[in-house]
Amino acid sequence: MTEPQTSNAYDSLPTPSVLPKHIAIIMDGNNRYAKAHGMAKGQGHVAGKESLDPLVEYCVAVGIEVLTVFAFSSENWQRPADEVALLMRLLSATISEQLPRMKKYNICLRFIGDRSQLSPELQQQMADAEAETAEHKAMTLVIAISYGGQWDIANAAQQLAKKVEQGEMSAEQLTVEALDRQVQLADLADVDMLIRTGGEYRISNFLLWQSAYAELFFTNTLWPDFAAKELNEMMFEFSRRQRRFGKTSEQVESET
């Protein structure tokens, strides 16, 4: 495991004037990294696991409130069985390795996704990690496992439909606001920056609801090579963008 660094490692990186509250990352490119470096199949995922540590630390150092990473999608179950098994082992190892860091840096660790498809052992490990870090306030690190944005929205709709059936609410109360309160991460800020590494230009069913007004960033850098310097550059670009949320530029400028 990568040894924790101090925030001094990032002192040379300037801090943007406007920071996103919530950064979400689609960590893509592990297999291509392994192929490019002549590694055995699956070893790119090992390299990718190691790249997370310094980025988490950097986000804490600059004051990001939430960092969400896409570790395993609901569609990834279709991958070869040996790769899925390796990913599950790496996820378990990541939780074990991250827990001391979460405690040291006062980070709350959370998970989103359909846990019913995971092994009972992994489910318990996730629940224990969440319980042990629930009161940490410096930042929230969210790991999406067996997650899909469509599943998230459908699951939220099903929960609301049950409330209608049980007479707890009316059909007229099934509003955007009601769904917004029911989806995963409803208690956290919506995604401000959505980043995808690896050169692909799609969001692959990730946080569809929560990223409705996210600023999108794509890079050809493969995930194991993605570092704080490039994230810092993206954050500066984020600070230069005008976020209008449906309003005109004139309206936004008059409000600042």
TrEMBL record:
Cofactors demanded by this protein: Mg(2+)
Cofactor, how bound (note): Binds 2 magnesium ions per subunit.
EC number: 2.5.1.31
GO biological process, one term: peptidoglycan biosynthetic process
Record-annotated active site: 28, 76
GO MF annotation: an example: ditrans,polycis-undecaprenyl-diphosphate synthase [(2E,6E)-farnesyl-diphosphate specific] activity
Reaction equations catalysed: 8 isopentenyl diphosphate + (2E,6E)-farnesyl diphosphate = di-trans,octa-cis-undecaprenyl diphosphate + 8 diphosphate
Binding residue positions for Mg(2+): 28, 215
Family matches, as SUPFAM superfamilies: Undecaprenyl diphosphate synthase (SSF64005)
Coiled coil: none
Pfam families: Prenyltransf
GO CC annotation terms, alphabetical: cytosol
Protein family (similarity comment): Belongs to the UPP synthase family.
Self-association state and partner proteins as the record states: Homodimer.
Protein name: Ditrans,polycis-undecaprenyl-diphosphate synthase ((2E,6E)-farnesyl-diphosphate specific)
Native source organism of the sequence: Psychrobacter phenylpyruvicus
Lineage, top ranks: Bacteria, Pseudomonadati, Pseudomonadota, Gammaproteobacteria, Moraxellales
Gene name per UniProt: uppS
